[in-house]
Write a structure and sequence with these properties.
heterodimer; A: about 140 residues; alpha+beta; Thiol Ester Dehydrase, Chain A; 5-stranded antiparallel beta sheet; about 25% helix; B: about 160 residues; about 15% helix
Chain lengths: ~140, ~160
């Protein structure tokens, strides 16, 4: 595995997060995150309750794909350099989904890079949109 | 949701939780990252982290293990319906003070805002924003989180 940066890295507008696809997502992944992250909302693991609530079945918690995106962001720019990370959940993630995680630097001002990121389902639907800022070096 | 609107400004709780090695490893694996840098001192040092083991940006979720009802405890305690509850947004800011395995973080949760909107298919949806401030064992602010919870309109 490539090293995780411990210091700011050079970033410029147009630089991209090394893209990554994760999946297919499984109920096991949801349950594993439930235990790790303390999210036992049954809508994410109880098929009966999910269907009674009007869903086709269980779906992944937003903090699971936000967390995967966050750790990818940290691997890229360095965990100590992130100054903000804001994620908006725009669509559900279902068992079987293949998720692609992407990000692009939009600008760098006074050593702070602005980054837009997305989590995209295999259908092209965006499951989450995010923005982040990170301390960076001039390229 | 008059009761919920009245909760704006209320402190929901203050709790201190440890960023401990086993939970951080479990979290990294749940986030599909098998790199030992997130839990092993030698691996972190090999990557140049001389002040300890770094954590993923969303590691503040570990507070949920010390909170009644876990991550969804606060919206449920405020009366939101679990069958209509969705997470809308999570937004962190970080001060730049490094967060490390072994830190003890104190989280203070406050109801920041309650908004009602017409639902897409009728009824009323409710947006609840909860702010959590995280301070480390030295009293240094390290992060702030704003969660937005959505209660969809009743069918």
């Amino acid at each position: 595995m490539s090293a995780v940066p411990s210091a700011p890295i050079p970033l410029a507008a147009g630089d991209v997060l090394p893209p990554r696809t994760v999946g297919p997502m499984t109920r096991n992944h949801f349950v594993r995150y439930a235990g790790a992250g303390g999210d036992f909302n049954p809508i994410h693991h109880d098929e009966t309750l999910a269907q009674a609530s009007g869903y086709p079945g269980v779906f992944g918690m937003g903090l699971l794909h936000a967390g995967i995106l966050g750790v990818q962001l940290a691997r890229w720019v360095g965990p100590d350099n992130i100054r903000s990370f804001a994620v908006r959940y725009t669509a559900q993630v279902w068992p079987g989904d293949e998720l692609t995680f992407t990000g692009t630097v939009t600008d760098v001002v006074d050593g702070l890079a602005s980054i837009t990121l997305e989590v995209v389902r295999q259908t092209g639907e965006v499951a989450a949109r995010a923005t982040a800022t990170a301390v960076a070096l001039a390229p | 949701m008059a009761d919920l609107a009245a909760a704006v400004g209320r402190t929901l709780g203050v709790l201190t939780f440890p960023l401990e090695r086993s939970k951080l490893r479990e979290l990294a694996l749940a986030l599909h990252d098998e790199d030992p840098v997130w839990h092993d001192a030698d691996s972190a040092a090999a990557d140049g982290f001389d002040g300890g083991v770094p954590v993923p940006p969303t590691a503040t979720v570990l507070a949920a293990h010390w909170s009644d009802g876990g991550i969804i405890g606060p919206p449920l305690a405020l009366g939101m319906d679990i069958r209509r509850l969705l997470h809308g947004e999570s937004a962190w800011t970080f001060t730049g003070v490094p967060v490390r395995l072994g830190d003890d973080l104190t989280a203070t949760m406050v109801v920041a805002d309650v908004t009602e909107r017409p639902g897409r298919t009728g009824g009323t949806m409710t947006l609840l924003k909860i702010d959590t401030a995280f301070v480390n064992q030295r009293g240094e602010a390290v992060a702030a989180l704003r969660d937005t919870w959505v209660e969809k309109a009743a069918p």
